[in-house]
Amino acid sequence: MALKFHFTDFPTIIAHRGLSAFAPENTMASFRLAALNGFRWFETDVRLSADGIPMLFHDAELERTSNGQGLFVDYSAAHLKTLDAGGWFSQDFIGETIPTLDEVLDLCLELRLGINLEIKPNVDQDQATVEAVHQLLQSRHANPEILFSSYSVAALTLCQQLRPRTPRALVVDNFELNTADEIVALTERLGCTSLHINQQLIYTDLIRLAYYAPFDIMCFTVNKKITAERCWGAGCASIFSDTGLLEAPTLKQP
Length: 254
Ligand code: G3P
Ligand code: MG
What we know:
By secondary structure, the chain is α/β, with parallel strands linked by helices. The protein has one domain (3-241): TIM Barrel. It is 28% helix and 18% strand. It is built from eight helices and nine strands. The chain has helices at 28-36, 77-80, 101-111, 126-139, 153-162, 180-189, 205-209, 225-233, and strands spanning 13-16, 41-48, 54-56, 114-119, 146-150, 168-172, 194-198, 216-220, 238-241. α4 links the parallel β4 (114-119) and β5. It starts with 12 loop residues before the first strand and ends in a 13-residue tail after the last strand. The mean pLDDT is 97. Bound molecules: SN-glycerol-3-phosphate and magnesium ion. The site of SN-glycerol-3-phosphate has 10 residues, from β2.
């Protein structure tokens, strides 16, 4: 089968949560490291603090990637900013904080990075998260290039209404909620420019069903060259990678 036609021109490798194999995920250090190693786009996860500030943090709970305890949603941005988000990864990164989206949008402008903002709502905050992100983007003088994505259909529906010209993507991990046919139809209905799938789904019918669909397929999380080649060979346009397929990244500015 020939390669699936590509509709977008995102890079073939997008740094996942920054270059998160080599720096703590979703921190400024991780985003800067991606840029230092030549990546032009990165993916990151946005959720709201208790006082409604969009911040970048993957898990609903604080424990895995910070020295905080409990649910992220229970704390104000001011409190979350006091936490250490680097020491869990290595002593070299002690002092990294949980970034606000506002800070990271500035970083993107400074480093000319594109940002894939995965809307990762706290429970029942699908629409509130999109509204807060939209308000922040509206309030700023300038914004970088953005690609929205989410597992949440409610979040993507609101992205479509509020920011119709910002590209968006449905994220799918498995077939628990929808069949492959339904996923393709849903991606089209939401006007998505891409469908972001768990890389294991390239071995399923989804690839065949999406072959003629008017959106790209991107795969997460792909950390080995052999897996990347399988994804690209299956017609995927881009992969999300923690390693960037690098064995030894450049760690510091020369
Ligand atoms: O956006 C792609 C990927 O990040 C989705 O899964 O859990 O790593 O945010 P997760
Ligand atoms: Mg993500």
